[in-house]
Amino acid sequence: MAFDDNGGDKGEGGGTTVSESERTITVLVVDDQSLVLDGFSRIVDAQHDMRTVGTARNGQDAVDRVRELRPDVVLMDIRMPVLDGIEATRRIVAEQVSPGTRILGLTTYDTDAYAIRMLKAGAVGFILKDSTAAQLVDAIRSVRGGTFVAAASTGLRLLQRLTSDEPKGPASTAALDVLTDRERAVFSLVVAGLSNPEIARDLSIAEVTVKTHVGHILMKLAVRDRVHLVIWAYRQGLADPRSPVPAGTRLPS
Question: At 150, which helix (H) or strand (E)?
């Protein structure tokens, strides 16, 4: 299982490492309304560190455009004709159309049902369309860096509901036996919501090394991405879904 945690970084000894904060974030905007497409595209293109590489007006077009353009982030509307955003997300993720692409769900409706379906389909975030421009671009940067994003009104409820749909036994660290000591340390910090740069600072290692450890953790635990690693930790009893969302998890207010 290959995993590109940040995308575009060169390995140690392979030249200058470009951190995720220095890279231009490429964005595909998907919505069936022209005003939304134009508005979000303008917001993205006004940022120094991101640009819109394409748009799509339905889920099927989104799948095709992701395959063609391989954007870093997709702003994915949920309710669309031809193919809705939930099914489009599922296909993009399940078929590994573009493994390094993160999907941020967009909706007008502040309901758990839509958000949970999007996250189960493979999205790594969920934001309301009435969010401010600043909240939108912060969410794009956050999901690009592997951080879970949710509207403040839904974030904790989502984690609680995502982790309560199946029984779990008493907490045990046995599931982590496949990890090295260093990987366990990285695992704990990822579950606590820290980004790669923050983990690198805490452990006094290079960001590219953190990226490598995260990739190994995901492969060994058979987890798709960082967001679902947090969910996995809750389900294993290694984190408490009744507690506040881990520090560092971005919840736009």
Answer: strand 149-150
pLDDT at 126 over 50: yes
Distances (CA, A) of 51 to 78, 124, 148, 178: 22, 20, 21, 40
Q: What digits encode the pLDDT tens for the residues 150-173?
A: 655 455 455 555 555 554 555 456
Q: ∠ CA(108), CA(195), CA(15), 5° rounding? A: 120
Q: Which own/partner pairs from 108-115 qualify as long-range (CB within 8 Å, at least 24 positions apart)?
A: 109/78, 110/151, 110/153, 110/154, 112/154, 112/157, 112/158, 112/161, 114/78, 114/86, 115/150, 115/154, 115/158
For the domain 174-235, what is the CATH code?
Answer: 1.10.10.10
Out of 3.40.50.12280, 3.40.50.2300, 3.55.50.30, 3.40.1550.10, select the CATH number for domain 25-162. Answer: 3.40.50.2300
User: 45, exposed or middle or buried, with CB in 10 Å at 0-12, 13-18, 19+?
Assistant: exposed
Q: Where are the beta strands (DSSP E) in 2-118?
A: 25-30, 50-56, 73-77, 102-107
**Dist CA 98 CA 92 (whole Å):** 7
Residue 7 has pLDDT above 80, yes or no: no
Identify any residues that bridge with 125 across adjacent strands, giving them in sequence order: 104, 149
Show me where the domains of the chain are located.
25-162, 174-235
Give CA–CA dist 79/73, Å, rounded: 18
